[in-house]
């Protein structure tokens, strides 16, 4: 059961940053952690309940304290990031390693916008790095209108991969509710053969 309670304010270690959280989200990662679905995730998320009692992975806020060894951030910096391993963003204060998935925010970006930009992006980046996507490569992104897919489109373009497939696929992704997804996958993959990199972000539930 989710409830609101008072907890001690965290103290940053020498290599950590203390952040006052201004915005967070409830995303697919948070929901998956709390529901432990599929059941095999309980082996690392907690057998009887979540190991992390304070959920929340995406955040945006202001640095209020830094450890003695931290040089990358200063008090007053506006930062955003994702705490996918430790969670804790659904609290007023959060401690993050200075070298974790966190960066300073552009001045013209609201906290609410920045906080919602990280979960899909870091997942897309993780998988695209595994295939060593480079300039001139071809990529097919299935589910390009979702959080992971839309971030994948932008990261693929940044890497110099051919983007016409991704642009054409956005329409196919929006139309997927009106067709059989399995056959659509096969048809699209065959359209872009030989040898495209495929980033599949759509989960089929039967």
How would you describe this structure to a colleague?
Helices cover 31% and strands 19% of the residues. With 206 residues, the protein is of the alpha+beta class. The chain has a 5-stranded antiparallel sheet. Strands 6-7 form a two-stranded parallel sheet. About 13% of the residues have low confidence.
Secondary-structure map with pairings?
Layout: E1 16-24, H1 28-35, H2 42-45, E2 58-66, E3 78-82, E4 93-97, E5 102-104, H3 111-115, H4 119-130, E6 139-142, H5 147-159, H6 164-174, H7 181-191, E7 197-200
Parallel strand pairs: 6-7
Antiparallel strand pairs: 1-2, 1-4, 2-3, 3-5
Helix pairs in contact: 4-5
Are there runs of 5+ residues with pLDDT below 50, and where?
164-181, 186-194
CATH architecture of the largest domain: Alpha-Beta Complex
What structural class should be given to the helix and strand makeup? Answer: alpha+beta
Helicity level: 25-40%
Number of strands: 7
Radius of gyration (CA) equals 19 Å
Strand order of the largest sheet: 4-1-2-3-5
Principal-axes shape call: globular
In the residues, how many domains can be counted? 2
CATH superfamily of the largest domain: Medium-chain alcohol dehydrogenases, catalytic domain
How do the SSEs run, as a string of H and E?
EHHEEEEHHEHHHE
Distance between the termini: 28 Å
Our count of helices gives 7
Beta-sheet strand percentage?
A: 15-25%
């Amino acid at each position: 059961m989710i409830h609101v309670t008072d907890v001690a304010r965290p103290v940053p270690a020498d290599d950590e940053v203390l952040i006052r959280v201004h915005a967070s989200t409830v995303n697919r990662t948070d929901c998956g952690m709390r529901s432990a679905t599929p059941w095999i995730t309980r082996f690392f998320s907690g057998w009887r309940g979540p190991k992390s009692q304070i959920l929340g992975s995406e955040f945006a806020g202001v640095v209020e304290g830094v450890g003695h060894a931290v040089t990358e951030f200063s008090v007053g910096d506006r930062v955003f990031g994702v705490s996918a391993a430790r969670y804790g963003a659904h609290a007023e204060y959060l401690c993050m390693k200075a070298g974790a998935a966190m960066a300073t925010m552009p001045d013209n970006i609201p906290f609410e916008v920045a906080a919602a930009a990280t979960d899909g992006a870091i997942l897309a980046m993780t998988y695209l790095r595994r295939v060593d996507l480079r300039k001139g490569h071809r990529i097919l992104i299935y589910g390009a209108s979702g959080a992971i897919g839309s971030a994948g489109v932008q990261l693929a373009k940044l890497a110099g991969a051919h983007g016409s497939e991704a642009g054409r696929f956005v329409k196919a992704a929006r139309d997927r509710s009106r067709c059989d997804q399995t056959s659509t996958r096969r048809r699209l993959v065959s359209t872009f053969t030989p040898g495209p990199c495929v980033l599949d972000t759509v989960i089929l539930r039967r």
